[in-house]
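Hey,

Quick one before I head out. I ran the complex with 3-methyl-2-oxobutanoic acid overnight. Inputs first:
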Amino acid sequence: MAYLQTDVTKVTTRVLQNMKLHGEKIAMLTAYDFSMAALLESTKIDVVLVGDSAANVMEGHKTTLPITLDEMIVYATSVVRAINRALVVVDMPFGTYQGNSKQALASAIRIMKETGADAIKLEGGEEVLESVQRILSAGIPVMGHLGLTPQSINKFGTYAVRATEQEEADRLKRDALILQEAGCFAIVLEKIPAALAAEVTAELKIPTIGIGAGQATDGQVLVLQDMLGITRQFMPRYLRTYGTFGEDIANAIRHYISDVKSGDFPNEKEQY
Ligand code: KIV
């Protein structure tokens, strides 16, 4: 299949909008460091998300709440150094935008100025509208995130599927329209029923990117380490793995240890 947007030298929010218009799916993956981002850059990935899932994947926290703005800026700066083509989106961490729109703008400006990223993402709908508007008014593109919003895990009390009840589904649809109206360029829909994601996607003019939200969304996102089979303890139903790299890496390390212990490494050709 010929992909319409394959030849663009830089993916912009406009390109994503075009992809939705032409029915070309958007492929998004996370990255937190230079070497993984360089691998992503060697592909035709459309969007790279410096997700606050770095709190789990890189730092071993149980939730995404502890990660700081300074930490996100370090991860994002490393990723941006490796990426030319993809749109780079950086998550705003918990506590940097919820309560105060001036603080939200200051946090977003720090991300854009210090990392060189293309856009920010934040979680929530109407309750963060003022922050979204203020960030947008400074010319910073905003990606929304609805459904399972991991920064609210202490309110939800579970990582189960969201919006299965009519009331929450109606609120999500309203929030999606509010974010679109405010000027967000795309919305992540996480872990919601496929039928609801399809309805939202059909109603919105801006692209939706799903994770555990079925086939109908305009794009898909996964955490890179999850889809590579590196984070082996995390296996939700929506996750498809494209390799067993966790096992492969562990095997390579076992092989190296055995070679060192046996004296096989280094050999004569591997010395000066
Ligand atoms: O932090 C993250 O990686 C995310 C994606 C799972 C959408 O928000």
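The chain has two domains: 13-241, 244-272.

Talk tomorrow,
K.
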